[in-house]
Amino acid sequence: MKKKSIPIGRPSVLRHANAHGILKLLRECGSCSRADLVRASNLSAPTVTNVVKDLLSEGLVEPLGEGESNGGRPPDMIRFRAERGCLLAVEISAESILLLLTDLNGSELETQKLSLAKRKTTPDAICGYIGEELKILLRKQKKTRAQLLAMVVGVPAITNVEEGSVLSISTLEGWRSVPLRAMLSKIANCLVIVENDMNLAALGEHYCGAAQSEKNFVFMKIGTNVGAGIFLGGRIHHGSQWSAGEIAYLRLPSISRRQPTIHEFGELEMVLTSSGILKSWQEESGKTSRTGREIDAMGILNLAQAGDVRAEKIVRQRAEIVADIIVNLSLILNPGLILLGGEIGSHPALIDLVRKQLEGDEFAVTKVGASAPGNRAVLWGAISLALDAIPGVLLPQPAI
């Protein structure tokens, strides 16, 4: 086989690499002068001038006029035009579709929530809803469809990111081996990335949440379902079959009675989730609380925090399971932090009991914390992924 040489020194390749570097600096600093770019990039002044000229011609940057002088000639300031396009984050769940539209710097423009109650939830139907909501968002922001440069979609399922396909979603209609990226590409006509929602949640915590300084951590969600996103070496760990983090299917001696089946709920989801906690409460004390009022899982956790003996017993049982999971993850991955998220996982009553279970365990992680509240981790993780991807959209690789 004849080897092909890689044209490292080819002018178009070097110019493209320089343009990527300068664009990255402009996106990070907001506005600066050409002299600032020379100092920050270590490129020559003529090279920076040529790159800026190319970026101006593409409409990616714009001149701002003269800046403040430090004694000499006032510098000519330029900035990245974040309003030139937009990015869309989408989170699909059994209950709703959440959407977040941002500019090219990741600044929030608009959010939207569509309830799926009493709606069809087939792949075609979900894609149709996303298309309609996208039209509304773009209209509100006076953006054209051509200005949408990337869409990142989070789904509660094992997802082949390379193919953009979803293996299975048990809580939605007809979601088996769905080519979601191809379906959404016809609607959006832009870069489409499909990712597991827990992986995006971990990215969101790293981007703007409780794990911004961590390179090795695990995000665990416990709410209506159970899952995890594993962040190792500064990036998401997918596993060889894209199923890393599917902790709902973990085998635990006190719980597991059958082999895990991919198209069914994991056995941990029957115990740790809101429905599992509510079921235990009903078995312990009937369908209502002492006041005679109906109660939900959050109410049970609140009672446990307030010292209710029955509620505390139920939550302690869950805390023991979660602590076992954390020790197992610590032995295998040795992360610096494990974040607990979701309405159940981030509740102080559970976290406090988990920490007590881990006291004195030499193999427990050094830190167990709650995910940042209200940061919409999945959506912001999607935006983070889109921000990393758009330089390749704005400045396509030249043909070699």
Q: How many helix segments?
A: 13
Order of helices and strands: HEHHEEEEEHEEEEHEHEEEHHHHEHHEH
Low-confidence segments, ≥5 residues, pLDDT <50? 1-9
Helix proportion of residues, in percent? 40-55%
Determine the N-to-C terminus distance: 19 Å
Query: Given the C-alpha coordinates, what overall shape results?
Result: globular
Arithmetic mean of pLDDT: 89
Biggest β-sheet strands, sense, barrel: 5 strands, mixed
Number of strands: 16
Query: Largest sheet, order of strands side by side?
Result: 6-5-4-7-11
The radius of gyration is 25 Å
Structural class: alpha/beta
Question: What portion of the residues fall into strands of 2 or more residues?
Answer: 15-25%
Topology at a glance:
Elements: H1 11-29, E1 31-33, H2 34-41, H3 45-57, E2 61-66, E3 76-80, E4 86-92, E5 96-103, E6 108-115, H4 123-140, E7 148-155, E8 159-160, E9 165-168, E10 176-178, H5 180-188, E11 191-196, H6 197-208, E12 217-222, E13 226-232, E14 235-236, H7 269-272, H8 274-285, H9 297-306, H10 309-333, E15 337-341, H11 342-345, H12 348-358, E16 368-370, H13 377-394
Parallel strand pairs: 4-7, 7-11, 12-15, 15-16
Antiparallel strand pairs: 1-3, 2-3, 4-5, 5-6, 8-9, 9-10, 12-13, 13-14
Helix pairs in contact: 1-3, 2-3, 4-5, 6-13, 8-10, 9-10, 10-12
